[in-house]
Specification:
- The chain is α/β, with parallel strands linked by helices.
- The chain has a single domain, classed as Rossmann fold (3-Layer(aba) Sandwich).
- Strands 1-2-3-4-5 form a five-stranded parallel beta sheet, sandwiched between helices.
- Strand 4, helix 5 and strand 5 form a beta-alpha-beta unit.
- Helix 3 packs across helix 4.
- The two termini are 13 Å apart.
Length: 186
Amino acid sequence: MLFHSVYGLRPAVEEAAERLREAGHVVHVPDLYGGRVVDDVAEGRAIMEEIGRDELLSRAAKASAPHSEEGLVYAGFSLGAALAQTVGLADEKAKGLLLIHGTSDLTEDAETELPVQLHVADPDLYEPSDWLNSWYLEMRRAGADVEIFRYQGAGHLFTDSGLPDFDAHYAEQAWAIALDFLEEVG
């Protein structure tokens, strides 16, 4: 299950899904914004706020529910990674979390043995080091097997070829590592 960023279901998300499919994975890519796609983060945030976090979580859970029996790996970009983490941790049949450019809060009673892989820019305006260090410790306390890959000097959405943050070198590096992770978790 692959969730898009605050920008909506951009071509880069479809390209990522296709890359994963070519590697032999079944990929579901829901459109949580109902067809709206933007090129500006402020416009994306406006859509996100209009829809609301609870509704976005509901949409993500509803999109995942028909496929949950398959034992999903939940993945996403930035906002989509936060949604993937939240929905994935609630799915008892989840196989793993692949978080690209984002994380989310954990509940105090969170428990999981999921393998988790995070790819994030370093530094990252939206995922500061103090937050990531705390997030890592909380995930480990919850029982997750966590790996964090930091990309020095990359922009926040460095895997999105249609945005100024794009970094071809780091994107290829992240995808190679992510594909190995997906191969391991099935």
